[in-house]
Every structure is written in structure tokens, then in C-alpha cells.
Amino acid sequence: MPTPTSQRLVSLDALRGFDMFWILGMEGVAGGIGHASRDPASQLFANQLSHAEWQGFHFLDLVFPLFVFVSGVSLVFSLSNSMVQKGRAATVRKLVTRFLLLYLLGLIYYGGISAGLDHVRFVGVLQRIALSGLVAGLAYCLTGARARIAMVVAILLSYWAFLSFVPVPGGVSGDFAEGPAHNWANWVDLHYLPGRKWDITHDPEGLLSSIPAIATCLLGVLAGEYLRNSPSPPSKKAGTLVLAGIVLAAAGWAWGVQFPVIKKLWTSSFVLVAGGYSLMLLGTFYWLIDVRRWRAWATPFVWIGMNAITLYMLDNLVRTTDLSKALVGGPVAAACGAWGEVLIYAGVVAINLLIARFLYRRQIFLRV
Q1: Is residue 24 a contact partner of residue 352, using CB atoms and an 8 Å limit?
Q2: Long-range pairs for 336-341 at CB < 8 Å and ≥24 separation?
Q3: Helix (H) or strand (E) holding 94
Q4: What single DSSP character describes residue 192?
Q5: Which residues is 55 bridged to in the sheet?
């Protein structure tokens, strides 16, 4: 038996940081470039750093599922070590504690109870990461690889069948238009999701669409198991991940002809497309950073990746956009004319990078 890979993968921290980088100010930079310049390249960049309105897939639509996927990969390494050192029961307790902490942070991120219980956002980005990580982690601790593969298949097929062939009350089956009366995910949120909903009547991180997000995390778990346990040479592992990603993304786009690729519904085709791109990125980062040992270029991403959740919370709580405006807004931004918006959001990126570097250099890692 080969010795499993147990050391920390620098590529995994870098990929997590690369993913988080795009929402720590870069979205605003792209939007500013799109407003300031009308040339085709600038418009393409701005378009890709915005979400598809409904059907379709832009680069920014990959950020959230990639983070969920990477969380699944990370679970394999952290839980494997925990089960060896502390046992299965203690590891399960650790999973539940992580879920509760992440869920609480999610509530705080959206304002908690500050506006009253009726305005609490019970679902959201961190809440979805918490739930998918809990279920995928329990699956890793309590089942085998074949059972986990079966879970992914069952989730994707059942979600597809339910949304495609079961009529929504007052509607028809197979209708994937936006709106609470058109699809089951939005209908369930309208009738059963309490508190504040992001889209008034429904939520892109709603109740029903959280189920296929678990499949995204499980895909990460399966990729992590392959990286950790496969006897294949590292370079072959990287190539296999990229090839598997190409196949998965192609399958997702083909499925999307009937079951559209829609992030707000987290459709099964979206899971495959996002999972495929995530596998390609994982294989590429693994080959560049852990196989070829080309690491200098990824240093800022490692800074971010080692404190991703912390930076995500701080960006909201510290209001880095307001801080950047205080430093380079007003007359400074005005002097740049149409490019002033770009300057302000470039300042947001710089502030987040400085915070990430500060935490990394002082070995302050707040992990959940």
C-alpha cells in the first residue's frame, strides 16, 4: 500500500485564495473598467466578473461553487488526520461544532437580529458552506467511497427529476423561468423559508437548492480522496483531475440543453459544469505548485487562502470599500475621471491583501 499524502497541499490554500481574491474587490474593479472603457476586451472582463442574470455561466458564477468544492477537498485531509488522532466520534463532534460556528457567522454577516427576527437571513453563503460541509463531512466519516458516489448521483438525478417532471402548484412541470410560481426551489422558499429572502420572494441560497450544493461538496471530497490516497505519480494525478474536469463540464453543458445551467437554482447541470471547472483548476494548481514547485506567483493567494473566511467576514464588517474611499476617494478619485471607480476598488483589493499578509506573517490563522 502506498503511503497516503498527508502533508498540507500548498496548492489547495492557493486555490482557495485565488477563488476568494475575485470577491475581495476585483468584482468592483471589473465593473469600474467596464464603465470607464467601452472596448470589447474591457466589456468581456466586466461581463465575466458579473453574475449571469439567470441561465448561463460567467466566471463569477464559479466563485461560490469552487469554494464549496475546495471545502470538500480540505475535509478529506483534516478529517482523516482527526479520525486517526482523536477517533471518529470526536471528529463528528468537530464537524457539528464547525457547522454551528459557520452558520452563526453567516447570520452575523447578514446583520443577525439587528433588524428584528422577521429580517434575519437564515440562508446565505456561509450557511450553505456550513450545511454542505456538515453533510459531506459526515458522509466521509461514516460511509465508503462508493456510497459517496451514489449520493452524488442520487442527489443530481432526483433534483433533476423533481424540478423537471413534477408540476409546481399553479404552474407546469419543466418550467425553469425565474419567479416563485415557475420552479420548485423558489416556490418552497416563498412558502416555507422564514425571515428575509435575498430576492424578496425567494433566495438564491434557499432551502431546496441547498441539496445539490451538497453534491458539489461531495465532488470535492472525491477529488480530495483521489489526491490523498491514489498511488499514481503526482503529475498523473494532476492530469487525471484536469481530464475528469473536462468530461464533467462537457456532461453538464450537454445536460443543460434540457435542464438549464442556472446558479440561482444550483441545477444538476450547474453542479457538473462548476464541478468540472473546479477539477480543472485543482489539477492545474496542483501541478504548478505541488508538482512543479512554482510557488512564488501564488504567494498572495496563499495569504488569502489561509484566512479565507476571516477575510470574507472582515471585508463586510470593516467596510473596506468605505475605508478605500477615505484613502483614495473624493478629489483623488475625481481627478481620475471615469477611472476613479477602478481606483477605489483597487484600493479595496490592496487593503484586503495587506490584511491577509499581516495575518499570514504573524501566523494568525482563524480556521473553521
Answers
A1: yes
A2: 337/36, 338/35, 338/36, 338/37, 339/32, 339/36, 341/28, 341/31, 341/32, 341/35, 341/36
A3: helix 88-109
A4: H
A5: 262
Q: How does DSSP assign 254-314, residue by residue?
A: HHTTTS--BGGGT-HHHHHHHHHHHHHHHHHHIIIIIIS---GGGHHHHHHHTTHHHHHHH
Q: Which three cell numbers stand for residue 55?
A: 441561465
330's CB contacts (< 8 A; 6+ apart) are none
* Cβ–Cβ under 8 Å, residues 284 and 297: no
Tens place of pLDDT per residue across the chain (368 aa): 233 444 679 999 999 999 999 999 999 999 999 989 889 999 999 999 999 999 999 999 999 999 999 999 999 999 999 999 999 999 999 999 999 999 999 999 999 999 898 999 999 999 999 999 999 999 999 999 999 999 999 999 999 999 999 998 877 777 787 766 688 999 999 999 999 999 999 999 999 999 999 999 999 999 999 999 999 999 999 999 999 999 999 999 999 999 999 999 999 999 999 999 999 999 999 999 999 999 999 999 999 999 999 999 988 888 899 999 999 989 998 999 989 999 999 999 999 999 999 999 999 988 76
C-alpha cell at 234: 503526482
Q: What is the DSSP string of 317-349?
A: HTTHHHHHHHHH-HHHHHHTGGGHHHHHHHHHH
Q: Is the pTM of this model over 0.85?
A: yes
The upper half-sphere exposure of residue 150, i.e. CA atoms within 13 Å in the direction of its Cβ, equals: 6
